[in-house]
Design brief:
Blueprint (H helix, E strand, L loop, with lengths): L1 E6 L3 H10 L7 E7 L2 H11 L3 E5 L7 H11 L4 E6 L4 H10 L3 E4 L5 H48 L6 H10 L9 E8 L2 H7 L2 H19 L6 E6 L2 E7 L6 H23 L3 E5 L9 H12 L2 H4 L4 E2 L16 H12 L3 H18 L3 H21 L14 H4 L6 H21 L8 H13 L6 H8 L3 H12 L3 H19 L4 H7 L5 H12 L3 H9 L1
Parallel strand pairs: 1-2, 1-3, 3-4, 4-5, 9-10
Antiparallel strand pairs: 6-8, 6-9, 7-8
Helix pairs in contact: 3-4, 8-9, 12-13, 12-14, 13-16, 14-16, 17-18, 18-19
Length: 542
């Protein structure tokens, strides 16, 4: 529906217009009526009609003045002049001022009114299409220029352009106003980017990055001539330029205030955090790349200092080459506490190892090597105790690569502790003790390797090199469970792992862990776990 306002000082003329056609049936609605131009303006400001049909000769404010007002203040509203022969000069003036058509009162009829209204409607839609195209073109030009600016800053900070003449030429081409003196560059990195990227689709990630840039760009408007660019991998560069400002203290205060606003805004609106670091102030724009590398190196300090921070001087460790590995006494103590299932002693040992790492500010290579050695201890003890390592780590994860996903030393430590806790829990659940008799340990090893098959006590006894009667007695004495009871326990624990991963259906899991009967699987699972597989599945979804 297009909204129409009727303006005429003659009430009979207004009534005639209102009743001449079925307005709504023809796609129009009368949104109001006025007796002069002044009253009409008050209605126009509140209703904003699409079309105004106005008489030319009216008291207070005539049609010519009203049309002039609309052209200046509401150029999208189309006007139709309404007049008699004696007012034809008015009509001519109104057409000159922007009226799209006119109606002579003495010739007015249903068909003529409809034709003029339809002509106005076509004019409105045509103008709208042209305006939409113009806006779209402006958006495309703005987006294109924005991309060019992003590319320019990216090349600048990564060293792809470092000649002053070329820099000035590029800035002129893309219309970028950037001072070449009193500069500083900040490096920024979204925290936990690897995990965020794993949860979001490509489209969602593009939207997230665009939102960070939009929020930052709006805030940077208050920080001189400054610009942000995305470098990939959750990393950004922010180039600050302050021109003739000579006070370093003022510049740093401006930069830190701006970064704090960006940090707070992305946390509030996007629910993400980031770390920032700022270079020294410099006066040569060709040196942007070198100063960005220095700021980028400071970001590595997040590993020891934590996330959601503006970082200062880099840790001394990044300039040293000291090598550090796991002390032999630490290795022995960790292994002993793991085999004895002593959680407190184990945590104290690992706390001690990471305490040394932090105190000595060990290099990343050293930290990685120490963590790899800690994982090797877990894997070795698991093998010795006949525990399938697949039950310790998340499905498909390579533990040595898992370390690299974490961004702070405390996260790495907590992940290592989680791995050790998982092994201790499994050793407790599976009643495994390295001090068991050799036949028992051999039988447990056989079960772990073959639980998915149709195996028996005789098969395990043959593998252990003893007769079945002896194995049955020793096995029960060591772990307090019979062979079949223990076999079912192992099968249920593997079933739990598969349910937790959520990749397989229950009917597939039943066969995969060695049960032949779906009903028997349900009974055994509930006897051991205290709940049905379906209930456990729902619990894992929470």
């Amino acid at each position: 529906m297009l909204k129409v306002l009727i303006v005429d000082d003659d009430s009979a003329a207004r009534t005639n217009l209102k009743t001449l056609i079925d307005w709504e049936r023809n796609g129009f609605e009368i949104c109001g009526e006025a007796s002069n131009g002044f009253t009409a303006i008050q209605i126009i400001n509140s209703e904003v009609p699409d079309i105004v049909i106005t008489d030319m000769s009216m008291p207070v404010m005539d049609g010519v003045a009203l049309i002039e007002y609309l052209v200046q203040n509401f150029p999208n509203i189309k006007t139709i002049a309404l007049s008699g022969y004696e007012d034809f000069d008015y009509v001519r003036q109104s057409m000159k001022n922007g009226a799209v058509d006119y109606l002579l009162k003495h010739r007015l009829n249903c068909g003529l009114l409809l034709n003029v209204l339809k002509s106005a409607r076509e004019n409105i839609f045509r103008s709208k299409d042209e305006n939409d195209k113009r806006l779209k073109l402006q958006e495309q030009l703005f987006a294109s220029r924005s991309i060019l600016r992003q590319n320019f800053i990216t090349r600048l900070v990564l060293g792809g352009i470092n000649e002053m003449d070329e820099i000035r030429q590029k800035m002129n081409e893309i219309g970028m106003e950037l001072d070449t003196r009193n500069l500083a560059v900040a490096a920024a990195q979204i925290d936990d980017f690897h995990f965020i990227e794993g949860r979001f689709s490509i489209k969602e990630m593009d939207k997230l990055i665009s939102s960070v840039i939009d929020i930052s760009t709006e805030i940077l408007k208050d920080a001189g001539r400054s610009v942000i660019a995305y470098l990939g991998g959750g990393k950004f560069a922010i180039l600050f330029s302050f021109g003739d400002i000579r006070s370093d203290l003022y510049i740093y205060n401006q930069i830190i205030t701006t970064i704090n606003r960006i940090k707070t805004s992305i946390k509030r609106y996007l629910n993400i955090t980031a770390c920032f670091s700022v270079s020294n102030i410099f006066n040569d724009i060709t040196e942007v790349s070198r100063h960005f590398k220095e700021a980028e190196a400071v970001l590595m300090d997040k590993f020891f200092k934590g996330k959601d921070k503006i970082l200062g001087k880099p840790c001394e460790s990044y300039t040293g080459n000291e090598f550090m590995n796991l002390d032999i006494n630490d290795e022995r103590n960790i292994t002993a506490s793991l085999k004895s299932l002593d959680r407190r002693k184990l945590r104290d040992c690992i706390d001690g190892v990471f305490g040394k790492i932090i105190e000595r500010k060990a290099s990343y290579k050293s930290i990685y090597m120490i963590c790899a050695e800690l994982i090797n201890i877990v894997n070795r003890v698991a093998r010795e105790c006949a525990v399938d390592v697949k039950m310790i780590y998340s499905d498909g994860d390579v533990p040595y690569n898992e370390i690299k996903k974490y961004e702070t030393i405390m996260e790495v430590k907590n992940w290592i502790l989680g791995v050790y806790e998982k092994l201790i829990s499994l050793l407790e659940k599976l009643k495994i003790n390295p001090d068991y008799n050799e036949p028992t340990r051999r039988a447990m090893e056989f079960i772990q390797k073959n639980f998915a098959k149709n195996i028996s006590l005789n098969d395990a006894a043959e593998y252990a090199g003893v007769n079945s009667s002896y194995l049955s007695r020793v096995f029960k004495e060591d772990c307090g469970k019979g062979f079949i009871e223990y076999l079912n326990l192992v099968r249920v624990e593997h079933a739990k792992r598969l349910i937790e991963n959520g990749d397989a259906k229950l009917k597939e899991i039943v066969k995969e862990v060695g049960f032949n009967s779906y009903t028997y699987f349900f009974k055994v699972f509930k006897d051991i776990s205290g709940m049905t597989p379906l209930e456990y599945e729902e619990l894992c979804k929470v």
